[in-house]
Amino acid sequence: MEFQEIVKRRYAVKNFNGIQVSEEKISKLIEVIRLAPSAFGLQPWKVKIVRDKETKNKLVEASWYQPQITSCSHLLVFCADSNIVNRIDKYEVMLNASGRSSDSVQSTIEKMRDFEMSLTEEQKLCWAQRQSYLAVANAVNGAKDLGLDSCPMEGFQPEKYSALLTLEKTLTPTALVTIGYSADQPQDKIRFPIDDLFF
User: Fold this and answer.
1) Which tens digits make up the pLDDT trace of 82-96?
2) Residue 140 CA neighbour count, 13 Å, CB half
3) Helix (H, G, I), strand (E, B), or coil: what is residue 29?
4) Domains along the chain?
5) Which terminus of the chain is more solvent-facing, meaning fewer CB atoms within 10 Å of its CB: N or C?
6) How far, in Å, CA of 153 to CA of 150, rounded?
7) Quick one: 6 exposed, middle or buried, by C-beta within 10 A (0-12, 13-18, 19+)?
8) Which helix (H) or strand (E) holds 173?
9) Segment 131-155, tens digit of pLDDT
10) Residue 96: CB partners within 8 Å, gap ≥ 6?
11) Positive or negative, the Cα torsion across 39, 45, 51, 55?
């Protein structure tokens, strides 16, 4: 499927038919998400994959009882990782292993560390959350390319998700993407005209 066709046909599914997506397709989707762009290439996010019904049933109350949570095959919880120092440390190891010159690695890492030090804790979280939405975009479009349906969601209570999923303190649930096969019918997309969005 051409990319323009993917973005035209993708829509936010409200009800899934409950059929499980194969792990082969989920693995392919994970790779698409892994390849998402991010500032500095730091990818300051982690994605919790919820497969089992029991956990989804626990999370539905914290998701305002939206039916996507329990009817989907897989629930992806995109968590912003505000531990930017840790991301930089890991990235430095990968850069060194890539064969790049030590001068190039040192220069790149210094820029990253200067950037990290310029941010407050609140700004680090906000930056990481903005970056995580790049991965969300890959998830919803990548799902459609694989013949899957999805719904990106912000309607949930992050604190309750953190507690129910026993997440690390530096991880903040930021967005959800439900994955599966649609049980509803897409409606025509309503989008603002080009001249209202571009100038």
Assistant:
1) 999 999 999 999 999
2) 21
3) helix
4) 9-81+132-181 (3.40.109.10)
5) C
6) 10
7) middle
8) strand 171-180
9) 999 999 999 999 999 999 999 999 9
10) 102, 105
11) negative
Residue 39 token pair: 């500032």
Asked if residues 81 and 171 have their Cβ atoms less than 8 Å apart, the reply is yes
Burial class from Cβ neighbours inside 10 Å (0-12, 13-18, 19+) for residue 42 reads: buried
Token pair listed for 116? 């990290």
Return the residue matching tokens 């967005």: 175
Say how many CA atoms lie within 13 Å of 20 toward its Cβ.
7
Residue type, 167: L
Residue 37 has pLDDT above 90, yes or no: yes
- DSSP-derived 3-state class of residue 192: coil
**What region does 192 belong to: left with phi over 0, alpha with psi -120 to 50, or beta?**
beta
Q: Looking at this protein, which amino acid is placed at residue 197?
A: L
The token pair that represents 181 in the structure block: 């096969």
- Report the C-alpha gap between 156 and 146 in whole angstroms: 26
Cβ density class 86-110: b for 16+ within 10 Å, e for less? ebbeebbeebeeeeeeeeebeebbe
- Residue 65's identity, in one-letter code, is Y
Interatomic CA distance for residues 74 and 181, integer angstroms: 10
Tokens at 93, concatenated: 């190891």
